[in-house]
Amino acid sequence: MLAAVLQDFNQLELKDVEIPVPKTGEVVVRIKSCGFCATDYKAIKGIRRNVSFPLIPGHEPAGIVHSIGPGVRHVKVGDEVICQPSGFCGACSYCKAGDTHYCEYAFTTGGDGPEEVWAGAFAEYMKTVESCLFHKPKSISFDAAALTEPLSGAWKGLIKHSEMEVGDDVVIIGVGGIGLLCMMVARAAGAGKLIAIDPSSYARNNSLQLGATHAIDPLRGDPVSAVYDIIPKGPDIVVESAGPIDAVKLMTKLRRRGTKWNIFGITTDETFELEGGLTHFLEGRMDASFGTNPSAMQKSIRLMENRLVNPESIISHRFKLEDIHEAIEVMGHSERNKVMIHP
């Protein structure tokens, strides 16, 4: 099969490798579509250093079951499936509590986080375990299905952790791919004012087309004053989905009494400060969210199946696997949104 193999930082090679063979409980999926996540890009470019070589990246796939190993009972050859990248044991205390993304024996297919990393989906075929597969509804395209994992992360952060309620005024800082998914979940959940903050005019325009009520450029004037001009009493929820530490610092300035704020986008080891007394008397609640779990994946599938959220609307570019180096170039540009790879 054809696969994109990362041999070292900035050294991604298209190679012919063996199609994986499933063992007990394992399934090999013929990949139809895979999202190109920013974490994949950071691994390829050496921005993210927790990488073991060689690596086949790609952790947002959907496809068709190609072969199954002994003991597989819930999928069969030919089934259309969605793949969760984070594998879990199902037996440790975290798994039994439903927090499978904390699993003590976790692995990931093509992504990062756990020490154990399996080959990912920038390839024609990928091996995973049965428990990481979900049946794809016929009404959902493969491109939309491949974005189940990032959509599920948006749902988990905003609805499960920050407990957004109907009518809440929500601010989303950073409306790239994941920020737009957070925004669309907020819109589907009945947000009142829905404010996007992003320095990119391209991103702001996308947010307005996909449901934001307002869009603010943080480089023009004071974004805190701009938010409070729109919501005089301040936001109910602020989601940081940008990544840079300055976005986190802006989030802390937007708080009023009772504001819930979610550190969702930043993954780098940087610091920010909070004034203790003010934080005490504001009585807000800080949450964070990473990864996904089967419950969030199923919620994401239901959002798409019921046409409450269409993640395909955030796709800006599609590339064949053999053109992945062109996709890498596009990932480095500011005027792009979600990039998809089609093996």
Number of strand elements: 18
Question: Pairing-aware structural class of the strands and helices?
Answer: alpha/beta
Question: In which range does the helix fraction lie?
Answer: 25-40%
What pattern of helices and strands is seen along the backbone? EEEHEEEHEEEEHHEHEHEHEHEHEHEHE
**CATH architecture grouping of the largest domain:** Alpha-Beta Complex
Can you tell me the CATH superfamily of the largest domain? Medium-chain alcohol dehydrogenases, catalytic domain
Quick summary of this structure?
Helices cover 28% and strands 25% of the residues. The protein is an alpha/beta fold.
Describe the secondary-structure layout.
Layout: E1 2-8, E2 11-16, E3 26-36, H1 38-45, E4 61-68, E5 80-83, E6 86-87, H2 93-96, E7 107-109, E8 116-118, E9 125-129, E10 133-135, H3 142-146, H4 148-161, E11 170-173, H5 177-188, E12 194-197, H6 201-209, E13 214-216, H7 223-230, E14 237-240, H8 245-253, E15 260-263, H9 276-282, E16 285-288, H10 294-305, E17 315-320, H11 324-331, E18 338-342
Parallel strand pairs: 7-8, 11-12, 11-14, 12-13, 14-15, 15-16, 17-18
Antiparallel strand pairs: 1-2, 3-4, 3-9, 3-18, 4-5, 5-10, 6-7
Helix pairs in contact: 4-5, 4-10
